[in-house]
Amino acid sequence: MSQAQIDEIFALLDSAAKVLIDQDVLPVDWQNNSQITRSKSPEHGDYASNIALTAAKAAKSNPRLLADQLIAALPDYDSIAKLEVAGPGFINIFLNTEAKFAVLDAIFDKHERYGLTDEFSDKKIQVEFVSANPTSSLHVGHGRGAAFGMSVANLLEAVGYHVTREYYVNDAGRQMDILAASTYLRYLELNGEQVHFPVGGYQGDYVTQIAQTVKTQQADAYVHPYAEISNNAPEDEVSQVSEAGAKEIVSGDKNAHIDVIIANSKKALGADYDIFLKAALSDILADIKDDLNDFGVRFEQWFSEKSIAEEIEPVLAELDSKGYLYQKDGNTWFRSTDFGDEKDRVVRRANGLTTYFASDIAYHKNKFERGFDTVINVWGADHHGYIARVRAALTALGIDEKRLEVILVQFVALWRGEEKIQMSSRSGKFVTLRELREEVGNDAARFYYVARKPEVHIDFDLELAKSQSKDNAVYYIQYAHARVCSVLEKINDKGFTVDDAQGQAQQILLQAEAESELMKLMAAYPATLKRAATGYDPHVLTNYLKDLASLFHAWYNDNRILPVSIIADETPSQEELDLMQARLRLSKAVRQVLANGLSLLGLSAPTSM
Predict the structure, then answer these.
(1) Which residues, in sequence order, are bridge partners of residue 94?
(2) Which of 378, 379, 401, 380 shows the shortest CA–CA distance to 389?
(3) Going by fewer Cβ within 10 Å, which terminus of the chain is more open, N or C?
(4) Using CA atoms, how far apart are residues 149 and 376, in angstroms rounded to an integer?
(5) Over 70: is that where the pLDDT of 5 sits?
(6) Neighbours of 486 (CB within 10 A)
(7) For position 515, which CATH number holds?
C-alpha cells in the first residue's frame, strides 16, 4: 500500500467524521489527529485507524459505538474489502488483493525517489554539527556527531526541507592560542632550545610535525630563548598517583602557566605569532576536511568564528539597551537567570576581553538573520549546561527560542577486545576517526554511530563491527541487497531475463503471508522516513532497514526464486516462470527500498559480498 493510498484512506475516514459533524455527533471544532498504522497480524487486517478512540471524548460517546457510526458514514472505496471494529474501538482495514500490490507499482515508478516528498519544501533549516575545535584530528567521539548530523540533514532533505549543513570553525579564542603556543614551543625544541613543555599544551606528535613544517620554511628566524618565553610563568601542574590509583594535583597551576607562555610568545614574536597560529589552523583544518570528506560528510558552509568578531559588540549593545547586562566584580554579566538559566553569565571579563559565550550569542543571532526557520545544533553531551544560556540570549534578543533545537550526542567508548581505549585530545592519546574507518570501514562506522538514539552511550565493539554475521546489523542489511543482485546475475547466467511486465502481470501469485508482510513493510517506508526526519532520529530508519532485511532473508530462505529446473539446466514450466517473475518483482522492490534507505544514511548498497 502506497503512502498516497494511506493518505486517501485517512481522507476517507476524515470525510466520514465530517458527516458525523453535520449530524451533531461530533462538535464543529473537532480536529482529526488520528493515525493509520500497519497491522501486526493478518487477522487484524492490513491497517488500523484509531480515529474513533481520538474522537470519543469530543463526541461523548463509547469508542466502539463511534467506530460503527464512522464505518456507516464511509463512502464506497474500491481498494477496501471490508472494515471491522476491534478492541476498544480500532477500525481494522482489510484491502482488496489488488491494493496490496500498489506499493510495488509505486516503487518501480519512483525508484530511488520512492519515499521522498516535498511536504516541507517551504522551510529552510540549518544543521550545525561536528564543529570540533581545530586543535587536533577528529577522534571517534567526533565521528558520532558527524554521522548523526549528516544523517539528520539527509532525512530532512528527503521530506523536502531546504537544508544547510554548517561547521562552526572555532578559529579564535584561548584554545587556538594554546595550540599556537604549543606549536611554537615544539619549534623551539626543533631548533635546539631546552623546553619544559607545559601540561596544559597540546602534546600530540602532530604538533611537532606542524612545527617542523614552519622550521623547514623559516629555519631559525623566529627563535627566542626559552627563558624569555617562560619568564615569570608560575609553576606548572605537578601531580602524582595516589595509592587508590587516582591522579592528585600536588602543586602548580597549569592554566596560569600556559597563559603566561602565550602572553610571552605574543610579546616576543609580535605579528609573527600569527605564522604559528595559521600554520597549525590550516594544517589541522585541512586534515579535518579531508577526513570528513572521506567519511562521506559534507558541509555547505564552513563558518569562521573570526568572521563575526565585529558583530559581538553590537549584539552586546543591544542586550545592554534592553537592560539585560550589568557590571559586577569588573566583569559584564548577562541576566540569563531572567530567562530560566541557573545563574547569570559573563560576557566580558574585567580585562576587557569578551567571552566565548558572547561570540556564541552573536553567532546564533547571525544564524537566524540568515533566514532559517529552524536551527539544529548537534552538540556533545558535555555541552548540556550550555543550552539554557543560549536559549536565554535568543529570547532576550526577541528570537523565539523554540526555533532552536539542540540535540546532545552522548560519548563513544571504544573497545578492543576487553580493553577500553582511553582518549585525551590534549595529550594526543586518542583513536582518530580516520584510524577507526581504516579498521572497520566507513559503512560499519556510520551505521553503528546512528543505530542508537543520540542520548544513549555507545560501546563501539570493533570486532562485531568487522564481523560478517547476522549479529552485525549493517552487514545483514547489505547482504539482503547483495542477495537480490546475486539472484539476478544467476538468472542472466542461465540465459533468462527479468521480465518486469510479466512480473507485474503475475504478482497475484504472491499470496504467502511473508510476501504480504514484505509489501506492507515497504508501504510503510515513506511514513518511516517522515518520522525519522521530523523526530531527528536516524535510528528509526536503521531499525526499519533491519526489519526489512530480516523479513526478506526469512522469506528468501523459505521460498525458492529460481526454479529447481533452471538450476538443473532443464526447461521450466510456464507456472514456474510466472512465479519466478512475480518473486523477482518483489525482490527487486526490496532491493530498491534497501538501497534508498542505505543511501540516506550514507551507506553503500553492495552488489556482492
Answers:
(1) 82
(2) 401
(3) C
(4) 9
(5) no
(6) 14
(7) 1.10.730.10
